[in-house]
Each structure stands twice: as C-alpha cells, then as structure tokens.
Design goal:
The protein is an alpha+beta fold. It is built from four helices and nine strands. It has one domain.
C-alpha cells in the first residue's frame, strides 16, 4: 500500500468520514394560527425522521434539544421592520433506569415507552402562545415564518465537534413563510 493512500485513509478517519447513512429530516406538514383572549396561538405538525446515529445517541443517554422558531415581520418603508419572535425549546432524552423516553419543555415533561411514541408527540406543537394582542396591529399585513431544528450547541462538547464535521447531525426544516393578516377583534354587545 502506498504511503499516499495510507495518509488519505488516516485523514478520512480523523475527519470523521463515515459511510453514507439514511438522511435525517424535518418537514412541516401543517400550520394554523388562531386568535384567543391573550393574542394568537400556533398549532403545527412536523414530520421528524431521525437517522440511526441520532437514534443511537438518544439510546445511549445523549439528550437532543429541538428549537421551534416563530417569526413575524411587517415591512415599513419609513423605519426598521416591525418584528416579533418566539422560541420553544423541547428536550428529547432517554432514561436508562426507567427505560423511558422523555420530552420536556421547561419544568413540564411527559414520558413514553418507545421512541416512535415520543417522536409523535414531539412533532405536534399545540396552543403555543406566539403573539400578544399588543404586539400586532389590527388589519396589518405581516409575514410569518416557522421552522424546527436540532440545536447542536446544546450537545455535549465532543458531540458538538462531531456535528461540525458530519451531516448526520444536521437536522432542520426549511423556513416556512406565509402572509398573515391580523384580524380586527370582534366586539360583542351585551344583551339588553
């Protein structure tokens, strides 16, 4: 074996080269924003597909952090754009002692016996309060955007280095953008 070929193989191993694997992906399949007493709440459905490397990491106790990001902007010709944004952090982990998968957001959590069950719940965001009534103007036209991604900055340091050199850790949806018109609030008269 030539010295050049040996050096190439060694370099490939050092840089984390691996055989092609099944791609990870997140797709947005449904989005709805509904008005409520406080403002506007978002419902969204995602299709999350993990590759074997991510499944293996979860099963070995590495927690994965998913960010759901919402943006709302209104173009203004006379000043900076008017904007609002929200971030929802969801943590997916496996607890070997209880043999359960856990999804948590802040202090709230829910446990599942299988990974597909946990992914099914992780992929559904319901009644997420994304806007307060005071943040938007009635009758104004906005541009809304939504995406979900794996936050590799929350991984343990050795995995962060690996995530920089491997596409297997790149799990994100594309931004889905759509026009959003704020409806004027309906005022009901009290019965006389």
């Amino acid at each position: 074996m030539s010295l050049r070929l040996l050096a190439s193989l060694l370099l490939a191993l050092v840089l984390g080269w691996t055989a092609p694997a099944r791609a990870s992906n997140i797709e947005i399949s449904h989005i709805a924003i509904e008005g409520n007493d406080e403002g506007y709440a978002l419902d969204a459905d995602f299709q999350i597909e993990l590759n074997p490397r991510l499944e293996d990491a979860i099963n070995k106790g590495v927690a994965l952090y998913f960010q759901v990001e919402f943006e709302l902007t209104r173009k203004r010709w006379y000043w900076f754009d008017d904007s609002a944004s929200r971030l929802l952090m969801l943590r997916l982990s496996y607890h070997a002692l209880t043999r359960q998968y856990r999804i948590s957001s802040g202090a709230l959590y829910q446990s599942f016996s299988t990974l597909p069950e946990a992914l099914r719940v992780l992929s559904r965001v319901r009644s997420w309060q994304v806007l307060e009534r005071a943040e938007v103007s009635a009758g104004a036209d906005y541009q809304a955007g939504l995406r979900m991604r794996l936050d590799v900055t929350q991984l343990p340091k050795p995995f962060q280095v690996n995530a920089l050199t491997s596409r297997e850790w790149n799990l994100a949806s594309e931004w889905r953008r759509w026009p959003f018109r704020v409806k004027a609030p309906v005022t009901e008269k009290a019965p006389q």
